[in-house]
Amino acid sequence: MTDFIDELIWRGRFHQATDEPGLRAHLADPATSPRRAYIGFDPTADSLTVGNLTQIITLALFQRAGHIPVVIAGGGTGLIGDPSGKTAERTLRTRDEVNANVEKQKAIYSRILDFSAARPNRANLLNNADWLCELSYLDALRDIGKHFSVNMMIQKDSVRERLHNRDQGISYTEFSYMILQAYDFLHLYEKHGVTLQMGGSDQWGNIVAGTDLISSAGIESLARCSHLSRQAATVSGADEELETEWQRYHSAGGWPWSSGDSGGAASTTSILPDGTVLRFPPEIQNMYANARGRWNAFGLTTSLITKADGGKFGKTESGAIWLTAPAPGESSTNRTSPYEFYQFWLNTADADVPKFLRTFTLLPRDEITALEAAHAADPGKRDAHRALARHMTDLLHGPTELNRAEAAARALFSGDVRSLDFAAIQQIVRTLPADKQGVPSPTDPAGFAALKSGGLRAQDLIAASGVCASNREIKESLAAGAIAINATPVTSADQRFTPADLVASPTGDSFIALVRRGKKTWGSVVIRPDPSSPAP
């Protein structure tokens, strides 16, 4: 079984940790002491982008190392919004919007992480709305806010930059985000035995705030920890002694010292939210201090993704690359088809391919090393590009969509699109420029009514597809034999295309024509009874 930190280092992902030697020791025995680590995800949208994929892969590597990954859906923090990397205030989402986004994102995690009950270290998914929305404002100020220094908080980059912007500034809402994320870690530490928070290097300040809060909470946190009895079974010495004392003091109706009782002059006093006064004698304090190293909280960050040319990763000319495929009739724009997803990886710059193989794939080291060697010897063969695209598309969308994406790529290269099904052609259409996605009204010359009444003229289909800029260019292209519609050569402007010549939707009421001019220029015409309705 691969060591988790060594694997991150080999893949170029490790950036820093709060205590690397201590964390290595903490993670050293996954067979008998599997640890829990979490990463939080923002439900601002109803999907996640390819930039979020790096953190899901980090959790997958953690699970493959024998430990337990915990996904935190930000149903609570998403109501506020992380100011990190933002130059302006976020638009606040309603609870219904955030909850809907959380539900839509769940399918993404299950594609990469193993949640099956049969797996001992199965992944967990929690929603921080379950505890943050139950937290009262007074409790937050009294039990959490007292551990935070405003002087420290305003030194955080995302806060300091906004404070210096008089036009925008930062609201108290977003300023408080750090406290909520830190409380997430404290809650997960106490109630779920989570001892490691991970994230991108831009989250370092928020992660350290969480470890500091756990440390500051000290003996009060011990009184709330539900995971200590599980961990005590795997430790020895002072830890077992502490657990014995813990059970003795906490099992029979609560602590022996409460308000009004005498716990001794040297005792430490802590007051719980319900008003109970806890007085801890020095021997308990000492045992707790000696044991904290075993139960410590750690933070780890991974390197941010950069491209060799300095460009922003995860963006194309058509926008962000999303991890969710469009569903029939769906109106969300936060979608990327499997074909477009495949093309995104296939078109990776030569200089970035080795890095992306290590960063994003779950391929074994020897396979990655072999692909890197082949790529270095002859990048023009594009073996590593194809391996990257195949692995990522299969990982996110499965073998059926991978096969469909590869079939579409081959068809576009050869020009013969007749073998493609409607779903594959739909995915191709989504990748075309907007001016080459013709959607005529039913009464247009290339519309639904004309198709049903006797077929469409080639001239009208070509014009609607946008592959030619004028009627003159259409005439010249036809004369040169440079036009094909659904792989059928067009020899005359009056050539007719009936429904049988086009690709029909499964319901039979929508049709697509793919128009090709020359070898590389493609356009499309989508013909349906009501063009304003969602695409089938």
- Per DSSP, the total helix count is 22
Radius of gyration: 29 Å
Q: Look at the structure and give the mean pLDDT.
A: 83
Low-confidence stretches: 226-239, 248-267, 269-273, 289-294
Shape: elongated
Q: What's the arrangement of strands in the largest beta sheet? A: 1-8-5-2-3-4
Major β-sheet, in short?
Answer: 6 strands, mixed
Report the end-to-end length measured between terminal Cα atoms.
46 Å
Beta content comes to 5-15%
Number of strands: 18
Summing up helix and strand content along with how strands pair, one would put the structural category as alpha/beta
Helix content: 40-55%
Give a structural overview.
The chain is of the alpha/beta class and 536 residues long. 43% of the residues lie in helices and 13% in strands. The protein is built from 22 helices and 18 strands. The strands form five sheets. It has a six-stranded mixed β-sheet with strand order 1-8-5-2-3-4, sandwiched between helices. Strands 11, 13, 14, 16, 17 and 18 form a six-stranded mixed β-sheet that branches. The longest helix is centred in the last third of the chain and has 32 residues. The radius of gyration is 29 Å and the shape is elongated.
